[in-house]
Fold this protein.
Amino acid sequence: MTKPLVAGNWKMHGNTETASNLAAQLAEQWNDHLPVEMVILPPFVHLAAVKAALAKSTIAVGAQNISQHEGGAYTGETSGEMLVDLGCDYVLVGHSERRELFGECSATVAEKFKAAQKVGLTPILCVGESLQQRQQQQTLDVVNGQIAAVIDCVGLHNVCRAVIAYEPVWAIGTGEVASPQQAQQVHSAIRTQLGDAGADTRLLYGGSVKANSAAELFAQSDINGGLVGGASLEAQEFLNIVKLAE
Ligand code: PGA
């Protein structure tokens, strides 16, 4: 049985003090025995403080981005080795904000995915369609295409070892959550694309997940947890969401 996973994407919010405090609150209130994995994805500069605050808990830490390069003259970039050195286990790859606002194309996303696995990090590969693509009935083509680009680069087996987060772009930060049926339809198409090798791959839903929408989403047969943005910045709300993935 696949252990569900819920990840909190803090995006570019907070300072050292608020990040440490939020992590400490989560560590204090989290029941390590629940059959759900919790992952926190703070900004790079707060990774060390968050890791320290979580030292006595089983809550894992990851980064929001990774360089496709191993090291060298790449000003402003952060390598996979650096993330491992800080105690990260996970890294987001291809978040729609990276694709849209920072011009990351499918080839770059695939290179980043490969760089993450090379150092032992588990990539959380984000995929999802825009509102226009959904309206033009292109959702499944877009999502399957984004995953196919990574399969072409690293192979199906390696994609199945990762985590995939389906995040419709129109649902991110908008308060407009996909219906459980809409989400399940896409998750099922991803599961079909992965075939037998992906039977246990964790497929997360992301996009305006809140405690009041999580239960029904997480109850869908091909949804194995969530990727949560805004609602992960509030300890109690996030803990409530994570518990619902049980
Ligand atoms: P949201 O963000 O929950 O605030 O919509 C999700 C994400 O971007 O991962």
User: Anything to note?
Assistant: The mean pLDDT is 97. Residues 9, 167, 172-173, 206-209, 227-231 surround 2-phosphoglycolic acid (CB under 6 Å). The chain has one domain: 5-235.
